[in-house]
Structure formats: C-alpha cells, structure tokens
Amino acid sequence: MQLFHQPPPDEAENRFKQGLHYRDRKKKEFDFDMAVGSFKEAIRLNTEIERYHRELGKTYVAAPLLAVSRGIGNGLALGKYLGLAIGELNRALELDFSQTETHLVLGEVHMYLGDDQKATECFQAAIVAASAPFSFLSPSSFIDGLLLKSYIKRRLKHLKQGKNRKADPKMAETCLEQAVIYRNEGQYELADKQLLMAFQFAPDWAWLHKTICKLVSGGKHG
To answer: Would you say 179 and 69 are in contact if contact means Cβ atoms under 8 Å apart?
Structure first.
C-alpha cells in the first residue's frame, strides 16, 4: 500500500530533458526537429523558466553548423534561425539577466550576423555576469568561470582585430565541403573536425554563416 502521495511529474521539465537528449549529437537518437519541438513544448507548459528559452535559443544558433555536419534544414530555413535565437535568448535574459552563458551565446549570434557592436556589448555583459559575487558556488565552478571569462575575452579580441588575418576563404570552403562529404558517409566526428577547421580559415563568422547557407541551398560561394 502506498503511504505517501507522490507528486505528479513535472511535464515541462520532462519535455525539457527530452530536448537536451535529442540535441546531443553524440547520441544515436539525435534529432534537431525533435529537440526544438521538445523545448517549445516545455516553454508552452511553463513560460517562466529561463533555461528553457536559453536552451531553445542555443539549439537555433547551432542550426547552421548542424546543417553542415548533420544535414538538418536547408539554406532558406537557416536564414530564420538566428532571428528565432535572438528572441529566445532575449526572453531568457528578461527572466534572469545574470546568466553568463545567455549573454555569451547572444554575442555569438550577433557575430554570425556581422553586428560587431552588439556582439561586443553582449560579451562585455557576459564578463560582468561572470564576475558577479557568488557566481561560483564551488572550486570547480570557479575554475569553469575563469575558463569562460578567458573564452569571452578571446571573442572580444577577435572582434577588435576585425577580419581574420590568417583567413583563407578557399580553404574554409574546402573544409565545409569536406565536412559535408564526411557527413554523407556517416563519419560525423570527421565532419565536426572539418567544420572546426573552417572556423580557423574563415574571414569572420558572418562570412562563414553566409557561406554555409549558400552551400546548403546549393548556391555558389561568395
């Protein structure tokens, strides 16, 4: 006989966890559309949870890269995802402005869009959030915070430097095309490595985003 009444499961939280599961590229169940759908359902059930909006925003931001390494979406659809990401990330900040990661990801969205001023503002806000008292509750989180601030400062440095001085657009395009080949062969780890190399050779993130959209839609690079 059950002596204690068990509280009903939090359906919104269950949907959120499903979204995280489907978004994990290392799992065979990886499914971008299912991840987005799960996060959106979690938000429908509870619109006031900051991390629900943040993780949906992060999923949208990843869409262009996943288009190359996993084959999701198409060139026309990719163009809308960054706008959707901005909406979700801004909503997350309305709910909790202290979240460093949200500021950071929003800054990266603006890098993809070529808006260096907004990207800089977001990264500076991320550093302030990461430096706030009681941001880190354990030694490990303190170390993670230092690494995160170092990462953010590198992003700011890249913005100040402008175009990548070691840029090689042709090589970046080759890396993207090779990533697609590996993806089609099911060699996803190699596809991810080629994608990371494309970042090293791309003039900037805005160029990379435009090139990916054109590549996925079958257009010419430019």
So the answer is: yes
Instruction: Retrieve residue 175's tokens.
Output: 């890396």
Instruction: Identify the sign of the CA torsion 30, 73, 198, 39.
Output: negative
Whole-number pLDDT of residue 217: 79
The tokens describing 138, both together, are 């354990």
CA distances, 114 to each of 49, 119, 177, 183, 216 (Å): 30, 9, 23, 27, 20
Can you list the domains of the chain with their CATH numbers? 48-162 (1.25.40.10)
Confidence of residue 152 (pLDDT cuts 50, 70, 90): confident
Identify the helix (H) or strand (E) that includes residue 219.
none
- Strand, helix or coil for residue 10: coil
Return all residues near 121 (Cβ < 8 A) that are at least 6 apart.
107
Across 95-216, where does the E strand assignment appear? none
Q: Which residue has the tokens 């262009």?
A: 64
Question: Are 49 and 42 contacting, i.e. CB atoms less than 8 angstroms apart?
Answer: yes
pLDDT of residue 29: 86
DSSP states along 28-66: TT--HHHHHHHHHHHHHH-TT-HHHHHHHHHHHHHHHHH
How far is residue 176's CA from residue 219's CA, in Å, rounded to a whole number? 14
* pTM of the entire predicted model: 0.86
Question: Each residue of 14-39: pLDDT tens digit?
Answer: 999 999 999 998 888 899 999 999 99
- Cα separation of 192 and 167, whole Å? 19
